[in-house]
Write a structure and sequence with these properties.
- The complex is a heterotrimer of chains A (about 375), B (about 290) and C (about 250).
- Chain A is built from 14 helices and four strands.
- With about 375 residues, chain A is α/β, with parallel strands linked by helices.
- Chain A folds into two domains: about 1-40 and about 175-370, no CATH class; about 45-170, abc type-2 transporter like fold, CATH 3.40.1710.10.
- In chain A, strands 2-1-3-4 form a four-stranded mixed sheet, with helices on both faces.
- In chain A, strand 1, helix 3 and strand 2 (about 75-80) form a beta-alpha-beta unit.
- Chain C is of the alpha/beta class and about 250 residues long.
- Chain C is built from nine helices and ten strands.
- In chain C, the strands form two sheets. A six-stranded mixed sheet of chain C has the order 6-7-8-3-9-10, with helices on both faces. A four-stranded antiparallel sheet of chain C has the order 2-1-4-5, covered by helices on one side.
- Classes of the chains: A alpha/beta (about 375), B alpha/beta (about 290), C alpha/beta (about 250).
Amino acid sequence: MKEFFAFVRKEFLHIFRDRKTLLVLVGLPTVLIVLFGFAISTEIRNVNIGLLSLDDDISVLRLMDKLDRSEYFTYVGRFDSENAVNEAMRRGEIDAALVFPAGFVPAMYGPEGAEVSVLVDATNPNNASMEVMYLSQIIYGYFGEDMQAAAMSAGHSGGGGRITPNLRMLYNPQLKSSYNFVPGIMGLILLLICALMTSVSIVREKETGSMEVLLVSPIKPINIVLAKMIPYFVISCAILVNILLLTIFVLKVPVEGSFFWMILISLIYIILSLGIGMFVSSIVRTQITATLLCGMIFLVPVMMFSGMLYPIESMPVALQWFAQVIPAKWFIEAIRKIMIEGVPVRYVTTEILIMVGLAVLFFTAAVVKFKDRLD
Amino acid sequence: MDLEGDFTIPKGELFGIIGPDGAGKTTLFRILATLLRPDEGTVTVEGMDIVRDYRTIRTVLGYMPGKFSLYSDLSVRENLEFFASVFGKDVKENAGLIENIYCRLRPFEKRKAGNLSGGMKQKLALCCSLIHSPSVLLLDEPTTGVDPSSRRELWENLAELRDKGMTIIVSTAYMDEADRCGKVAMMKSGKFLLAASPSDIVSGFGKRLASVRSDDMFRLLHDLRSMEGVGKCYTFGDTHHIILKDGTDMTEELVGEQLVSVYGHTGVQVRRIRASLEDCYMNLGEE
Amino acid sequence: MEKSGYVIEVEHLTKRFGNFTAVDDISFDVRRGEIFGFLGANGAGKTTAMRMLTGLSFPTSGKGRVAGFDIWTQSELIKKHIGYMSQKFALYGDLTVNDNMELFAGIYGVPKAEARSRIDLLLDRLSLMPEKNSPVKDLPQGWKQKLAFSVAIIHRPEIVFLDEPTGGVDPAARRQFWELIYEAVDEGITAFVTTHYMDEAEYCNRISMMVDGRIDALDSPHALKEKYGASSVAEVFDILARGAERSE
């Protein structure tokens, strides 16, 4: 055991002496999370909104005031014609406008109901559709309250007016786009560290000739490999904690499901990735091949086929089938279900079993391929 | 790689292996180190079979491969401690064996191994392969790229280790190093052509050898090669060595005379000499 | 360009890295057409000095001319007029013998028409014609080194720098290599050689000994042996290296 811990210590020294790589390993997830969370975010913010209303109804003005106070919209001002609204939108002064027809409020309480137009600058269709959704939601909510209050004061319930169907958005009620990429980044980073770094570090010993010396020592070769994994396991756990903290406290994405199972699934995935790294290192001789193999066979497909960037459902069937063999796909799906959908763990049993199976497969293959000789 | 040959190395021998690159020296070392299994034939180390008992052999073996480069990001001390612990040993309990080598490294204990000079790196690598007090030490070309002073120090260290009873097998491209071995094996393309003590090899040299010198050494080389009766001619330090063919009337005196009268050389010196190990190597396999 | 009697002229060349003086005020000349042995222990400053002479790094102070060009202002011209071969970088193993030669002839700007005849001449001299189309990695080490040398002089440089060209090579192959150097020198190329083999130092016309960044001795092997009362250059080396203070 003393031998083993000396080995682990040495691996930690290697990692901590190589400051630049360590910085990349720890910095990369942080940068990715923050980048995806804010810069690439499709969440809308600071939308300038105008108003065209021919009546001076107080409830319409109160609505605008409410919009202005929300973090998404800024009320710019009132226009007196549709032309003026169009002109302002063309000049970029407003991104959206609400157009209330004359007699909107009384008509709302009438049996026919009333219509409000929502005009949106659709240069960015994503933002536009989201703005429409936000606005309709706020309007429905606002006037719904008004109508209820009116009905109450009139002394009869469920009378006039029209209650519009509520648009409900599942899993991401605020449409925060940060949600979906978090499991993807976890899948990518953990694979990068466990598979790529471990295999490169083992193969480096082959390249520098120290593996020959280590093989010709009483230490069991399998311990050499296990000792290499421990530091990367520890680092992976630290990075996992880092990602979760960033996600929960900086991006303010709440964890809907069981925290315990989320951590456990991540640990299974970390072990699976270490198995991949060990397998790769047992079949290659140079650091370049190890990097290419891990990069091309495992990392690139994670980006393409794990559902991180593109939804798997919209891919051709052949590629959908291919996606099933990507280890990270199962992890990302499981985490997405637990973390964002908040489903009980029985709904991710398939994913967990597949990951455990793959881990056993890779470790067995690696141990079978691993030799304590050079031939 | 085909390897051919039988030899035994007695305990406590300093055994040298000489041969050109690609002769199979590294393959031989890997077989002895239990890293490769021979396709045919058997090897025993300390009486144990290298295929069957390789685990036990590995506890008594010290091995320094040709391209061994230590961990350049670890310090001198850290490297040493790591290799000691790999063998389940403590640096202190084995410090005595390496003291004479390590004393030169002690001032640099905290320096990263990657920042040591070639000679120092070699010393550290030797310490790391000795730290578990092996009874058999294998060194694959330990002195390539090492300057003459450091080489001599290394060989003094090896002699001390041999005197303490260690069996040492070392390959080298330097003939002066081979001279320091108790026994030398010469390899060419996987075959052992000769395995004997340096003095036996030298006294078994059955040819007439002479050293020649003149004021124009480059022209001298070509002129000697064109001479009747001169079998082989090669540079040797500040002289050229020639082999006089068997059964020729040519003598050292005649060579000298002809160089002056026929080829117009000045400052000619021709002397009959005894062969050195290097001469034997140069004429190897041409009997 | 006027051809002086010296291909390398160095005055008070110094290179410092922080507090460490790698090359300490060295001055020497190399004569046209000689074999100049540049000896010293590991870490004595040989490599640093060679880098400055081959235009790869600037000195901290001092003057120097190589092949008639100033090391401060004309390093690009120097690179065109010298050849360089080290033990570490030899040739591209996966390219054939002929490809390697054509590649380096191209890199050094040898005209196409002339390159062909020079390559054939060199291949012929090395008896490598039959191996012309085999990948370099399949050749024995000794041949690789001879080929690397031929490539280094394919553009007929005025001076060829050889950095431990024969490391790890057996005595027979080393001799064949040195005969190539002799031939090149016979054709007027100057050879600047570092080596750890002291018998090779004896082949040089003149040798310099670097100790702790300084040149402590410079003369013909014969004169040095007389001066230090030694029987071989190896002994001279030992006497001088013993005075070394730094082992790095």
